[in-house]
């Protein structure tokens, strides 16, 4: 659809689900508005849908008034589902039915932020490559192991396009505008938003470790990269030191100097935060979560989890996980004595 410059105006329907990401939504819509302005004609039109036709509240509390409900939608050539936090707890078969109906009618289907969850549950990502927000990657791969998912900014696979969310939606829309109406227009739109570089699809979502941690010691960065890549089967401190060309004593000194923690404590905290994401985002059993994060038993995992977060894994799930009743995300973790690379 986005390859045909004569398909003007290109119509796009956005389905908003409560707690959707306002940043991802506006980053997708605003380039379309600007493209129309820069071109001096209507290249794109869009409509907003909600499940029931009522206003939808974003995760920041701002409500958006839709043009119509899903039931009032007849046909659309492009449908984009926009979600945000707690998408894994959103149970509404009407939405999945609507997405399947649009796909059967030949619509190109897209998703922003965590919207890939709903496309996957509707069976619309089978045999397709997709992406999702980095914070949800672990839970998504556990829930949908048969789907090929990447950590890229966005993925375009035939009649499916998915985006990791946030400002990545701007890059994806600029890419699609460029594909349909030329790179010169895409560059004009990018300049309008003071966006000095249109990122490529395969750019990484997350900041480099050096920036996230606020440290630049190359061997410390290397060790933490190894830790993040080996959460399910943790490496020993000796292995970590050897891979970085350090002694264990040197490794200890580096962690204490730059992060105020031992390597063992830092590694454990990384694994526990991964476990917390799986508890909140998936229906995996507590034992399965424990094993997926490198713990040999549920009891040891529960003990460590309680020491870190002040509550057991079962209590965490009851408060904010997939079996909980809270309408928001899980409560924030307490401040930790170290700067954890994956936190924001």
TrEMBL record:
GO molecular function, one term: DNA-binding transcription factor activity
Transcription as UniProt keyword: yes
Protein name: AraC family transcriptional regulator
Occurrences of domain HTH araC/xylS-type (ranges): 221-319
Keywords: DNA-binding, Transcription, Transcription regulation
InterPro entries in UniProt: Class_I_gatase-like (IPR029062), DJ-1/PfpI (IPR002818), Homeodomain-like_sf (IPR009057), HTH_AraC (IPR018060), HTH_AraC-typ_CS (IPR018062), INH-QAR (IPR052158)
Highest taxon of the lineage: Bacteria
SMART domains xref list: HTH_ARAC
Keyword Protein transport in record: no
